[in-house]
């Protein structure tokens, strides 16, 4: 009885808008991150639809080429920094304390700050669209000298990138501090769920590379306004230096965008196969190897800049190596499914869609690693198809799968399964209608980032545009479903899924404001089948 | 009895239709593959592309076949009971080692092609390509020929006031004329921002970077017109600076160079005017 009173005391907090502004609670902050990401998803999606509308037919129909370029630039920045990264940080906030048996994140005030930077950063970023000279139009890679031709927007873009970087670094510090300090007794590192593992490694990647990006963009800023010549050949600088700096950040960044998805899928597949994850430790080692390799492959984004032969060979071989740990992961997921007792609820469907379509993106990645062939693929729609396959049915599908999987735990309500499945099928069909034809137009020779194209690319571009609209509207269904689930629905059980494993499922649904006020008992061997520890933890109150 | 007969007929019809439509699809996809191109190197690049593609297909078919077999057979709704295994050292070793071997199979020819592509020695002539916002300049270093190459497609066509011709956006006023059967070294640089000089049929794509001079080479086997585009975002009109190469027989080329030199003063004036107009 006294415990209840204490918990009630803890749950005192300001109501209304002040609750969200002043919150230091990991669940509130997780919710904020997730909603922020969801809103940005529709903003970034709208930009994608502007791009696809212009590309529906050859000729210039709707937008000016300069605006088109700022749409491709902004779409990328919004989707990467505004959607995928905040969504994963939101998931980390919600889930990591529950998964490791902690109360909250280790650094709650820092947590509040790292979220609240983001809305300001993105307001500043998006406001550049209305500035003299338009938004940034030099591509999200910000290559000089072109980026230095940006109008008034440039300093605002650079400062907002600094803010996003600060937010990510603080988020990463918090994740590391939480995972290393807040684990329940007995929760050794090699017992942590893979989502926690992949996030731990992602957080280290973030801390390692975000400052590199910050340095690079600051050099752009001083080149533009303070007379330095870091990237100006006429002043003794080197435009290619920026590309090396950028991709030294950029390649680990693409793993920052995908590693937590591996963790999500590794949680979902065993649940619905009702069978433990195959090769847990090899999954951990594979994640670590991918993270390590991500630091020594950056120049494969710049094979065409003209590197020495030895450099091109090294980066080709190193890049090909990534196929090995990635393959291990895919094989492990398939083996987890093998001889399980599978059911196909929406999270499972999205997870299976992830494995298949991410693997297709992996295959085109292997093709791109082959330097001589990359000369033909580079900067064409083949590359666009590749990275959208790993990011949309990759990262985004994993995020959606995670939302379906944990939504009952967050809200206490079951979502509408029929609507969820409809959302899955519409998304999967349209994502392929959108991005599969891009492989073909790319191979046929269509460069990326062009507002108008030669006639032979017309038909597949039309198909892609139709697919993009289909995919976009299918996501409105998702929004509707999430709102509906928050408002009501069938009561979710604590365990939610028959095969669900892990500490978060031992908490009631919806999860209490403070996750584990008493550490759960996870000492001893983890037993996937008898739920031994889960029983002990249930007796905590 | 009758029903099964109908069912058989319909399923036969449907499978025939399916096979037909797949073959149609494969046929229609043909021009949407990478070009084989017109140089020995471009053929080798194409073969490398197809080799990697087929290897990916085989791996994909195997992995997805296992996965779908499992999805169909190992369902709870079919009463399948979950197995308990969660590791196998030998299996895990196998699928770590096997990809290594496959990668080596790809890496060896890839390295060979790359080494051949980078060997710009023993060239018989040199052309310097300079990227501008938004056109190309071609200088024939050994022949004293120098001109700019600008998009020829009319504004009316771009803004849909006029029908589009078949070479829409892939046509220029002055084409880069090159001889067949001669090794040509191409030096690539830029005057302002980054560009990339790309001709798919020659399997050449190289960035044009201010302050850098990149080298590539080609030896074209077949006369013809080969079209490409700028492949590195270079600003507003990035989509409007195509590359057109006209390959002609060596004797014809020598004649062309001679003609250019007699008309040189005229061409030079023309070019200057164009630059001033920009």
Identify the quaternary structure here: heterodimer
**Termini of chain A, distance in Å?**
9 Å
**Morphology call of chain A:** globular
| N/C terminus separation of chain B | 80 Å
Q: How many beta strands in the DSSP annotation of chain A?
A: 0
| Count of strand segments of chain B | 10
- Biggest sheet architecture of chain A: none
Order of helices and strands of chain A: HHHHHHHHHHHHHHHHH
CA radius of gyration of chain A: 23 Å
Number of helices of chain B: 6
Coarse morphology of chain B = elongated
Radius of gyration of chain B: 27 Å
Into which percentage range does the β-strand content of chain A fall? under 5%
**Poorly predicted sequence stretches spanning 5 or more consecutive residues of chain B:** none
The greatest interface here is: A-B, 89 and 90 residues
Please state the structural category of chain B: alpha+beta
Helix content of chain B: 40-55%
Provide the spatial order of strands within the biggest beta sheet of chain B: 3-2-1-5-8
Walkthrough of the structure:
- The complex is a heterodimer of chains A (about 550) and B (about 280).
- By secondary structure, chain A is an all-alpha fold.
- Chain A has helices at about 1-10, 15-20, 25-55, 65-100, 110-125, 155-180, 195-225, 240-275, 280-295, 310-320, 325-335, 345-370, 370-375, 380-410, 415-445, 460-485, 530-540.
- The radius of gyration of chain A is 23 Å and the shape is globular.
- By secondary structure, chain B is an alpha+beta fold.
- Chain B has a 5-stranded mixed β-sheet with strand order 3-2-1-5-8. Chain B has a 3-stranded mixed β-sheet with strand order 4-10-9, with helices on one face.
- The termini of chain B are far apart.
- Classes of the chains: A mainly alpha (about 550), B alpha+beta (about 280).
């Amino acid at each position: 009885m006294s415990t209840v009173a204490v918990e009630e005391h803890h749950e005192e907090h300001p109501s209304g808008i002040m609750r969200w502004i002043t919150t230091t609670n990991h669940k509130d902050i997780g919710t904020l991150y997730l909603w922020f990401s969801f809103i940005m998803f529709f903003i970034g999606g709208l930009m994608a639809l502007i791009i696809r509308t212009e590309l529906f037919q050859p000729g210039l129909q709707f937008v000016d080429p300069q605006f088109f370029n700022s749409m491709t630039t902004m779409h990328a920045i919004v989707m990467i920094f505004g959607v995928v990264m905040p969504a994963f940080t939101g998931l980390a906030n919600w889930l990591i304390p529950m998964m490791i048996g902690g109360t909250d994140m280790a650094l709650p005030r820092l947590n509040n700050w790292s979220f609240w930077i983001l809305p300001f950063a993105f307001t500043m970023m998006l406001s550049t669209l209305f500035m003299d000279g338009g938004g940034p139009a030099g591509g999200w890679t910000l290559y000089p000298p072109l980026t230095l031709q940006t109008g008034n927007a440039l300093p605002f873009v650079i400062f907002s990138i600094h803010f996003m970087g600060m937010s990510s670094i603080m988020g990463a510090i918090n994740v590391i501090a939480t995972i290393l300090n807040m684990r329940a007794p007995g929760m050794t590192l090699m017992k942590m769920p893979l989502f926690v593992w992949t996030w731990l490694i992602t957080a280290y990647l973030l801390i390692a590379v975000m400052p590199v990006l910050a340095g690079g963009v600051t050099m752009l800023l001083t080149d533009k306004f303070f007379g330095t010549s870091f990237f100006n050949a006429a002043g003794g600088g080197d435009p290619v230096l920026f590309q090396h700096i950028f991709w030294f950040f950029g390649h680990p960044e693409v793993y920052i965008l995908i590693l937590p998805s591996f963790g999500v899928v590794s949680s979902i597949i065993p649940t619905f196969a009702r069978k433990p994850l195959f090769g847990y430790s090899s999954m951990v080692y594979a994640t670590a190897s991918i993270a390590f390799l991500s630091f020594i492959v950056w120049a494969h984004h710049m094979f065409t800049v003209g590197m020495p032969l030895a450099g091109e060979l090294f980066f080709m071989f190193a890049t090909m190596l990534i196929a090995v740990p990635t393959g291990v992961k895919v094989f492990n997921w398939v083996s987890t499914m093998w001889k399980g007792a599978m059911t196909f609820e929406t999270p499972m469907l999205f997870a299976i869609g992830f494995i298949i379509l991410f693997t297709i993106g992996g295959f085109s990645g292997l093709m791109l690693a082959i330097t001589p062939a990359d000369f033909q693929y580079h900067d064409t729609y083949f590359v666009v198809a590749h990275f959208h396959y790993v990011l949309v049915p990759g990262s985004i599908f994993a995020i959606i799968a995670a939302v379906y999987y944990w939504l009952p735990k967050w809200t206490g309500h079951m979502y509408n399964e029929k609507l969820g499945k409809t959302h899955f099928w519409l998304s999967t069909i349209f994502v392929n209608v959108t991005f599969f034809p891009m492989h073909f137009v790319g191979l046929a020779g269509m460069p990326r980032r062009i507002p108008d194209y030669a006639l032979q690319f017309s038909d597949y571009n039309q198909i892609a545009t139709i697919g993009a609209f289909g995919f976009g509207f299918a996501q409105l269904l998702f929004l509707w479903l999430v709102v509906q689930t928050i408002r009501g629905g069938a009561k979710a059980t604590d365990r939610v899924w028959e095969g669900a494993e892990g500490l978060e499922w031992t908490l009631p649904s919806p999860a209490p404001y403070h996750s584990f006020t008493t550490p759960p008992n996870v000492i001893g061997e983890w037993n996937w089948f008898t739920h031994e520890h889960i029983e002990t933890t249930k007796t905590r109150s | 009895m009758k029903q099964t007969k109908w069912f058989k007929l319909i399923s036969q019809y449907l499978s025939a239709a399916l096979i037909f439509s797949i073959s149609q699809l494969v046929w229609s996809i043909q021009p949407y593959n990478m070009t084989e191109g017109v140089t020995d190197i471009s053929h080798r690049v194409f073969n490398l592309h197809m080799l990697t593609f087929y290897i990916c297909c085989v791996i994909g078919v195997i992995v997805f076949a296992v996965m779908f077999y499992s999805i169909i057979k190992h369902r709870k709704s079919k009463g399948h009971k979950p197995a308990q295994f969660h590791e196998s050292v030998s299996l895990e070793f196998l699928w770590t080692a096997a990809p290594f071997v496959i990668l080596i199979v790809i890496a060896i020819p890839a390295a060979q092609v790359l080494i051949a592509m980078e060997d710009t020695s023993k060239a018989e002539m040199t052309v310097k390509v300079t990227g501008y916002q938004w056109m190309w300049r071609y200088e024939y270093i050994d022949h004293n020929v120098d001109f700019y190459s600008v998009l020829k497609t009319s504004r009316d066509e771009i803004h849909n006031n006029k029908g589009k011709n078949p070479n829409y956006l892939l046509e220029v006023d002055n084409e880069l004329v090159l001889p067949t059967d001669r090794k040509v070294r191409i030096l690539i640089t830029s005057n302002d921002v980054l560009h990339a000089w790309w001709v798919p049929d020659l399997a050449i794509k190289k960035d044009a970077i201010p302050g850098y001079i990149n080298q590539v080479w080609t030896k074209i086997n077949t006369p013809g017109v080969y079209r490409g585009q700028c492949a590195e975002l270079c600003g507003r009109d990035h989509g409007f600076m195509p590359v057109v190469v006209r390959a002609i027989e060596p004797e014809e080329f020598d004649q062309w160079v001679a003609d250019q030199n007699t008309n040189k003063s005229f061409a030079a004036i023309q070019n200057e005017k164009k630059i001033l107009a920009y």
